[in-house]
């Protein structure tokens, strides 16, 4: 923690470079990913301040759109589309994801009630679990990749997203980041497979 505080104290030394950011933000991308500390979007993409508008949730979950019930996630998506007019949305899952692991192997709800509630409210467990029923090898990787596809499908149910897609002014991308190697794979929508970016 102390090193983080020390760096924060020194950050103002970069004020000259940061000053233009006070005039506004014009990111091109909404980057939706997990809260996991090992996933650092700006580091992975080389993005600078102002390049990526981020939505981070446990398990990079996008809730179903619900007209009568607002949520922080829906508000973030709407702002990115309607106000910032981003032209790309990336949903990036990752290896070793604790949230997707919790979907596959749920423990006792009493130990982590908020996590269980979040996953129960937002995740079609059967869809994510399907990934493990037909693929050998790394079941969690398969589940995360299937999970990314589920979130991309969900996004299309958000009116702001659907409207921009219809007008051809928005592209959706599914990514998978391997924590231990730094490899990024992208979803090929034609066949549903992830391949190196
Ligand atoms: Zn995760």
Automatic annotation (TrEMBL):
EC id: 4.2.1.1
InterPro entries recorded: Carbonic_anhydrase, Carbonic_anhydrase_CS, Carbonic_anhydrase_sf
Keywords linked to the UniProt accession: Lyase, Metal-binding, Zinc
Cofactor(s) recorded in Swiss-Prot or TrEMBL: Zn(2+)
Pfam family, one: Pro_CA
Annotated family: Belongs to the beta-class carbonic anhydrase family.
Top-level taxon of the source organism: Bacteria
Function: Catalyzes the reversible hydration of carbon dioxide to form bicarbonate.
Main EC class the enzyme belongs to: lyase
Reactions catalysed according to its record: hydrogencarbonate + H(+) = CO2 + H2O
SMART domains given in the database record: Pro_CA (SM00947)
Protein name stated in the entry: Carbonic anhydrase
């Amino acid at each position: 923690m102390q090193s983080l505080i020390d760096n924060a104290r020194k950050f103002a030394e970069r004020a000259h470079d940061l000053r233009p950011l006070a005039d506004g933000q014009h990111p091109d991308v909404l980057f939706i990913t997990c809260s996991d500390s090992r996933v650092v979007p700006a580091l992975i993409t080389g993005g600078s301040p102002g390049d990526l508008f981020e939505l981070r949730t446990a398990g990079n979950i996008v809730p179903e759109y619900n007209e009568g019930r607002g949520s922080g996630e829906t508000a973030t998506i709407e702002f990115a589309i309607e106000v910032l007019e981003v032209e790309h949305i990336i949903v990036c899952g990752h290896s070793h994801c604790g949230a997707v692991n919790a979907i596959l192997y749920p423990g006792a709800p009493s130990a982590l009630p908020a996590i269980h509630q979040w996953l129960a409210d937002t995740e079609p467990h059967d869809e994510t679990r399907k990934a493990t029923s037909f693929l050998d090898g790394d079941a969690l990787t398969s589940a995360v990749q299937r999970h990314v596809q589920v979130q991309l499908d969900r996004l299309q149910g958000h009116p702001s997203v659907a409207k921009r897609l219809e007008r051809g002014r928005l592209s959706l991308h599914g990514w998978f980041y391997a924590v231990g190697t730094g490899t990024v794979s992208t979803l090929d929508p034609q066949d549903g497979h992830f391949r190196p970016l």
